[in-house]
Amino acid sequence: MSAALHIDVRAGDFDPGAELARLEALGGGGVASFTGVVRGGNGLAALELEHHPAMTQAMMTRIAQEAATRWPLLGVTAIHRHGRLLPGQRIVFVAAASPHRAAALEATAFLIDWLKTRAPFWKKEHFADGSSQWVDARKEDDEAAARWEKH
Amino acid sequence: MTIELLYFARVREAIGRSAESVSPPDGIATIGALIAWLATRGGGYAEAFADPARIRAAVGEDFADLDSPIANAREIALFPPVTGG
């Protein structure tokens, strides 16, 4: 089964409905997705996403290809925004289409776990009082990604 | 040998620039040695590379380890652990 890969690194918003419709049209019978939204609170005014432009597309493509080798997928979509985002705005979207629900669901979890630990993005939080700080990598994210290591 | 270095996030801010060309002395053979050599420049470099364990690297489009050789590398990116998603 060869999967249709759709990888998009962009500043602007995207339409999850349109992305899901594209995957539904592949005829697989099952589409699973995860949408990440900028979490507000603690006086967060904006979230700035820096990335390594020469590398980001290639890494996200590799992650999508890896999902398509591990599960029987008809389509894989991975979208990640960069630049300045506001609380409540969409930041990331991953989805997978498959004839089998388990494959679609597992591949979607795999995609976001690997994207968080392998795609070259860095988050900086900007607060209402004018202060800012880089977000530290989380041990929980590494542990989530480690679930998918092959034994 | 001239290498184009790219800096991102905290590393870029500490050093105060996003890219530069460097010519490491002979004997600088690995990413780890490159980071240690850059740290000897002091100032923002010393701050950026104070803890090599907190630095990640990519040679071209591939992630690299501190032990990775830098021979033939044209472009090396140095940055903190990634925090996307």
Bulk shape of chain A = globular
* Helix-residue proportion of chain B: 25-40%
Number of helices of chain A: 4
Shape of chain B: globular
Strand content of chain B: 15-25%
Estimated radius of gyration of chain B:
12 Å
Number of helices of chain B: 3
How far the N terminus sits from the C terminus of chain A, by CA atoms, comes to 24 Å
Largest interface: A-B, 29 and 18 residues
SSE string of chain B, helices as H and strands as E: EHEHHEEE
| Widest beta sheet: strand line-up of chain A | 1-4-6-2
What is the N-to-C order of secondary-structure elements of chain A (H for helix, E for strand)?
A: EHEEHEEEHEEH
Alpha carbon gap, first and last residue of chain B: 36 Å
Derived from helix and strand composition plus strand pairing, the structural class of chain A reads: alpha+beta
Structural classification of chain B: alpha+beta
- Nearest-integer average pLDDT of chain B: 96
- According to DSSP, the number of beta strands of chain A is 8
Overall pLDDT score of chain A = 96
- Which band does the percent of strand residues of chain A land in? 25-35%
Descriptive account of the structure:
The complex is a heterodimer of chains A (151) and B (85). Chain A is of the alpha+beta class. In chain A, 35% of the residues lie in helices and 34% in strands. Chain A has 4 helices and 8 strands. The mean pLDDT of chain A is 96. Chain B is an alpha+beta fold. Chain B is built from 3 helices and 5 strands; from the N terminus they run E-H-E-H-H-E-E-E. Chain B starts with a strand and ends in a 6-residue tail after the last strand. Classes of the chains: A alpha+beta (151), B alpha+beta (85). The interface between A and B is medium-sized, with 29 and 18 residues.
